[in-house]
Each structure stands twice: as structure tokens, then as C-alpha cells.
Design a protein that fits this description.
Elements: H1 27-34, H2 59-71, H3 80-99, H4 111-129, E1 133-135, E2 146-150, H5 158-170, E3 177-181, H6 189-197, E4 201-202, H7 205-213, E5 217-220, H8 225-228, H9 245-253, E6 257-263, E7 273-274, H10 276-282, E8 288-289, E9 309-312, H11 329-353
Parallel strand pairs: 1-9, 2-5, 2-6, 3-4, 3-5
Antiparallel strand pairs: 6-9, 7-8
Helix pairs in contact: 4-5, 7-9
């Protein structure tokens, strides 16, 4: 790109109407200081003296104008300004990654990498393949901690990723979801690193409570492997929610519980059988048999393009209970049952409203 031609103030008639006023109130002093100065970037030749009645702008004004012009490039006839900004942003991102100039919290969460890379990898599945429709996103508070409790299904945990994308892309406050994952996730070499970078952490009460107290939105799927590995004949029938540990965590942190129902994940891998012997050899909780896997090899691992709906229900407040309520087993049982029933009722409601599995 050619160097821009520098024309001193006073020589170009286009700038005479917008000359900056002297700051010290005296045109003579400003004019004297401006004599003989060079603007940055000139290689030879002194700058022509500026008449005293037309003082040159100080260095701060020139720098501010130059910075503003560089940060807001004008798009040309072909819209090149947008590409310039993208390329510049991508190069700046790479520079920060290479120099280590980015932040990671104590759980390993890398917000910048999640926003710019990981979400971009998930978004095509979310928008184009599963065509996720989100309802009730306003039920997630705009600030402060909240615990999202959702059903779990689909043979592979793609519903967790779609839930994270739904909160990230549709919440008006741009909130981030921190999922509680099983220990198996953090035993896999590559998946472990990606899960940490995306903000997920081990499903334990201590980590969940710490995140809630810091004002994060935490997601949990209490069904665990019982939900994700159930046969296709039991689709959309919630499994047992464990001992209600998530309720105790929400009570201790005083965070509301937001029930969440996900429809569409049950049909991506219709599980018609479970090879338990193979699962024990591989150290897996189950080994799914579907109409396409393992019969078609890697092609059988491609999920079916079902139409998804994610609905967030009305939050259940927990901040009105006393401190000792977290140790009350009857209260935990009642709240757990309330959350489970609300999710199950919404699942049935969404299934009645659904016109087709794929459309």
C-alpha cells in the first residue's frame, strides 16, 4: 500500500475549515513550537513552517486520528474492509496464542479460544445440521450463578455441546455455560484438553459450588451414563437422578435451578443393542449397537440429522432456604423430584408439538 501524502495544515484548502484551536490560548507560541517539526513517517525534508494564525495539531491529536483510521478501515466496492478486519483480528489472535498473552482460569477455561475457535467448530452442527430451536432462554438470569439441569441422551454426549452453544449464542447477556462432565471425559487424551479449554470441569460438588459462587452458569445432566446409554425403546423416559447432589450444591450456593428439556438427541444414534463384553474389554460403560454402527464402520458414526428443540423452564429459587437446608434429605428429595417432573412434563409437551423427527 502506498504511503499517504502528508499535507501540512494551511496548505490544503480542504482542511482550513476544520483546523484545531490552540490549547494554550496563544497562537504565536503554538506556531513557534510547530516550526521545524517532522510528522512520523517522513524520510527527508523539514515540514514547511506553519503560519502562526493556523497552529498545527499536537502529537496526541494526530496519533488519535491515525489510530481511529487504522481500527475502522473503510470497505471498498467489493467489501474488502470486512475482510481486512477479519485478517487483522486473526493475526492478532495468533500472536496472542504464540506469545502466551491470554488468560486461563484455575479450571483451565480459555474464554478467548472458546469464543473464536471451539464455538466456531460446534456452530455448523448447531445451526445447519441439527437446526436447534431454543425456547425460554430468558429464564436463565442475566447475572449471578445459576444451575441448569437437563436430560441426557443420544449415545454420544452431543446434547451437552448443543446446550452449551444454545446458551452461548442466544442468551442476550452472552453468558457461558460451564458443564459438569464425568471422569471418563477427562481420561481421554484429546477430549480432556478440549473439555478443559471449553470451560467444563469434573462433576464434583466442590467445583460446582465454587463456580456458582463466582456467578457462573453451570450445567449438569444428573442421568449420567444411565441416560445417554439407554436403549431406543426407552427414549424420552428420564432415568433416576441420583441422590440429588445437584440440589444440595444449589442450596449451598443460593443459586436458582433452571430445568432444561432437550428433544431430538434421542434419535441421532438409535441404540438397539449393547455389546457388554466389548464394553468391559474397552473399559467403557456401554458399547452401542445401532442400525449403522459398527456395521458401516466410520460412516456408521455419523449422527442422523434430527431437528432439535431445547427449552429452559421457569427457575426454581433456592436462596430462601436456611443454611442447614442443604443437609435435609427430605428437602433434597422433594426438590429433585420437582425438577425431574418438570423436565419430564416439558419433554412430553414438546413431543406432542413436534411434527416430525427430521423437520
Amino acid at each position: 500500500m502506498a504511503d499517504a501524502k502528508v499535507i501540512p495544515f494551511g496548505d490544503d484548502p480542504r482542511t482550513r475549515r476544520a483546523r484545531p484551536k490552540p490549547r494554550d490560548g496563544g497562537a504565536g507560541a503554538a506556531g513557534k513550537e510547530a516550526k521545524g517539526k517532522r510528522l512520523p513517517g517522513r524520510k527527508s525534508g523539514p515540514l514547511a513552517p506553519v503560519p502562526e494564525q493556523h497552529p498545527a495539531p499536537d502529537d496526541a491529536v494526530v496519533a488519535e486520528a491515525a489510530l481511529g483510521a487504522s481500527e475502522e478501515p473503510q470497505a471498498g466496492p467489493g467489501g474488502g474492509g470486512g475482510w481486512d478486519r477479519r485478517i487483522a483480528g486473526g493475526l492478532a489472535f495468533l500472536r496472542r496464542r504464540l506469545t502466551g498473552d491470554y488468560e486461563v482460569d484455575e479450571f483451565g477455561y480459555d474464554e478467548e479460544l472458546t469464543d473464536k475457535v471451539l464455538m466456531s467448530m460446534i456452530r455448523p452442527l448447531y445451526e445447519k445440521y441439527f437446526r436447534v430451536e431454543v425456547k425460554g432462554i430468558e429464564n436463565i438470569p442475566s447475572e449471578g450463578g445459576a444451575l441448569i439441569v437437563a436430560n441426557h441422551s443420544g449415545t454420544l454426549p452431543l446434547d451437552g455441546l448443543m446446550l452449551q452453544a444454545a446458551v452461548h449464542d442466544t442468551h442476550p447477556a452472552g453468558r457461558h455455560l460451564r458443564l459438569l462432565a464425568a471422569d471418563l471425559v477427562f481420561m481421554l487424551p484429546v477430549v480432556n484438553e478440549l473439555a478443559r479449554k471449553a470451560g467444563h470441569t469434573l462433576a464434583c460438588a466442590e467445583d460446582a459450588e465454587e463456580l456458582l459462587r463466582r456467578g457462573e452458569v453451570v450445567g449438569v445432566m444428573p442421568e449420567g451414563f444411565k441416560g445417554i446409554g439407554k436403549p431406543f425403546s426407552e427414549r424420552y423416559k428420564l432415568q433416576r437422578f441420583g441422590r440429588g447432589g445437584f440440589v444440595s450444591t444449589a442450596l449451598r450456593a443460593g443459586a436458582p435451578i433452571v430445568p432444561c428439556s432437550i428433544v431430538g438427541a434421542e434419535e441421532i444414534y438409535p441404540m438397539i443393542g449393547n455389546a457388554r463384553t466389548v464394553a468391559r474389554v474397552l473399559g467403557l460403560p456401554y458399547f452401542p449397537l445401532t442400525p449403522t454402527f459398527p456395521w458401516l464402520g466410520p460412516l456408521g458414526a455419523v449422527p442422523l440429522p434430527t431437528k432439535w428443540t431445547i427449552q429452559f423452564g421457569a427457575p426454581i429459587p433456592t436462596d430462601g432456604y436456611p443454611a442447614e437446608a442443604a443437609e435435609d434429605p427430605m428437602l433434597m428429595f422433594n426438590l429433585t423430584d420437582q425438577v425431574r417432573e418438570q423436565i419430564q412434563h416439558t419433554l412430553y409437551k414438546l413431543l406432542v408439538q413436534r411434527r416430525s423427527v427430521f423437520f
